[in-house]
Fold these 2 entries.
Entry 1:
Amino acid sequence: MALVVQKFGGSSVSDADAMLRVAKRIVTLKRAGHQVVVVVSAMGDTTDDLLDLAARLTSNAPEREMDILLSAGERISMSLLAMAINELGEPAQSYTGAQAGIHTDSRYGRASIVGMVPERVARAIQDGQVAIVAGFQGVSDDNDVTTLGRGGSDTTAVALAAALHADVCEIFTDVDGLFTADPRIVPNARRVRTLGYEETLEMAAHGAKILHLRAVEFARRYGVPLHVRSSFSEKEGTWISNTTANPALEGIVPEAALTYMKEESVEAPIISGIAHDRSQDKITIVNVPDRPGVAAKIFSTVAEAGANIDMIVQNISHTDSGVTDISFTLPAADGAATLEALKEIQPQLGFTKLQYKDNIGKLSLVGAGMRTNPGVSAKLFESLSAAGVNIDMISTSEIRISVVVDLDDLDKAVRAVHTAFGLDAADSEAVVYGGTGR
Ligand code: ASP
Ligand code: MG
């Protein structure tokens, strides 16, 4: 017997039929003798619809009310799913984040989990119930409802799996797992069979939208094996884990998967995949005096404006003039506030102008094998140049190389790099069953 946490995204429970399909899947697993905890997202586009509704009443909604509103989406789906399972003859009960003991800080809209006390959930599964938990929400010390940020149900699921010492956390979505690139850009992308936590983190942090970043961080910290797969097929998905096979999973996961999990650490492929990100913009500060303390002033100002910057490039000084240019990328959403803050320090720092570029895209090549393969960056740059793509900025980590290119060149760049690294599959493997990619 295994304890399995299954998370179903919004596209997997978008209407009553979809809900019933998911309910049957859960019942089958339960009847095979396993303990099942389910985390569910809001149905379809419910969260967006709730946001739109609020926006028609106010442009300045109190954050506390916003979180109560948004948490309702998951409460609708959890109770309906519990009803569907009961109707199929298995006992099931649903729990809000608070009832499931998910304690958070009180940063509405982006709360972090600070403690997990899922004893009601533990009792329910002991009693033979299926426990259904609302994703994406918790409760603060003040007893207020909080939400964990868009896509946060993944994090709920992994946190529960960690707290309950589950054998596996299965993340059900509308694609068959993680791919070597977004199948919408690269139709012959391959499904990745297994991926380490580090590579998954890099992929998620640099634009791969399939998993919530904090969920991966949790999984890594507590060693929770993840299985990302489609709720629309029985196919095996992508295993994210550093552990070896767990005998409790026999009968739940295909035999072959247990073998991959055993073999996984033996020899990781050089490249895991390519992530891309269209959500960043670039600011260039022109003619910045080149003296100590200036960069410190600039980036403390940027940080105070709330922007999380990604790449920074400082050009060499313009000869003799004692000035230089500094460029950095940041989330487009933080652009306006950051420009405003920089304008305020312009008189003090004496740079001549600020340039803003919103049509940039970032490509990130991720793979553990990179540390030991010096040829990787050369191959990356060669493939981009052969495709006629100009590189604007470069940054690297031990297992990632990212480049900023013109937004118009991004898709072409992703395809060229995918081919250059031999990642193309013979046929197209990817099917997007739902449409939202979650
Ligand atoms: N329903 C929330 C959202 O749409 C949380 C989630 O789906 O994970 O962002
Ligand atoms: Mg942009």
Entry 2:
Amino acid sequence: MKVFKFGGASVKDAAGVMNLSRILGLFPNESILVVVSAMGKTTNKLELVIQSWFTQQLPECIEHIEELRFYHQELIRGLEITRQQQFELIKSTDGFFDQLRELVKKPSNTNYNLQYDQIVAYGELVSTHIISGYLNATGASNRWLDAREFVVTNDTYRDARIQWQQTQANISQLAADGKLKDGINLVQGFIGRDALSGNTTTLGREGSDFTASIFAYCLGAADVTIWKDVPGVLNADPKLFPFAEKIDELSYEEAVEMTYYGASVIHPKTIKPLQNKGIRLYVRSFLQPEQPGTVIRQMDEIRKFPACIIVKKNQMIISFASRDFSFVAEESLSLIFGELYKLGIKAHLSQNSAISFRICVDDDPFKINPFLEAIQPHLDVQTEGGLTLWTLRHQSDKLEKGLISGKTVLLEQRVKHTVQYVLR
Ligand code: ASP
Ligand code: MG
């Protein structure tokens, strides 16, 4: 079994969906589990639905839902299938948007993160429904799977943690029942189910890569391919750096490091399960599927990897100080990290001095505000937002000087092979 993952950009329009089908056609004799994200910018739009729902702006909320309905209908109208097939696919897809409208008629309750997951999951449910319908209509028979029947998590909504034992048992059962079809199986990325409540959960933005890796691990897949709009893993974002170039081969370790620091090409949690089982990960272009892309694999030989630049925008520095000039030590740190963990906030960088402690995190008010509320009774807290975190790996001095010139360095940290700057 191979696992393929197609992200939102690859299925943003009818041409993309038809291209996905062409790519599957290049592997006629393979069993493939296809993991798909929401189409185009659907998840962002669903976030607007949630926002307007929570701010009681019902007309806006409905408008966003209807725009999403229209976008998906237009996409279906662009698919090369019969009128009748289009009509039926539109009708069945409409059902999801009707459900969404029903959902937002109820008042939003206070648990934002829980409600967020119930709504945002529709992006993946709709995209897999449409793709499955299109493939069936064109003779590529396939099996549609509901990821929530397999991927079991805890209830950290928006950043749910996998319950591996149950997930493994579910996926093994699926394989043992012979229910995984020879040929094409289709499943949503990003979504799962809370073991206790049965509510829908999500694995964090861009989490579909991780879903691919979860299924690959539990199935003992031959390999995983992430189909992207870039030729492979690049050493910098080509939109920001014209000199960006493709890396042909990476070790699991290097890939883990790069994604840990925020290289957005692969979701950071993706690599570990694959590494554990030695499953190769290919990152290839859905625009040039004949090209080899990048392979991430076990490498025993020492390699010199190219200099690599990772940029994270919209960052915030939070500084903590004790009220009485005592040290910010173990007790306060355990409070801080306990709350970060509870809220699923990742400290991209942390730095200690005698009486203060600073972290750099994504500036996400829905997570930061509850965090600050929990900490402020105990410590003095200051924040500065609107910052950028730069990470350089295997850097040269020249690159580094060029990067920081003319900017204010608020935090700097060096570890082996890596230097990080938070710049204003
Ligand atoms: N659709 C989700 C997102 O945009 C998950 C993913 O794309 O991997 O974050
Ligand atoms: Mg996406």
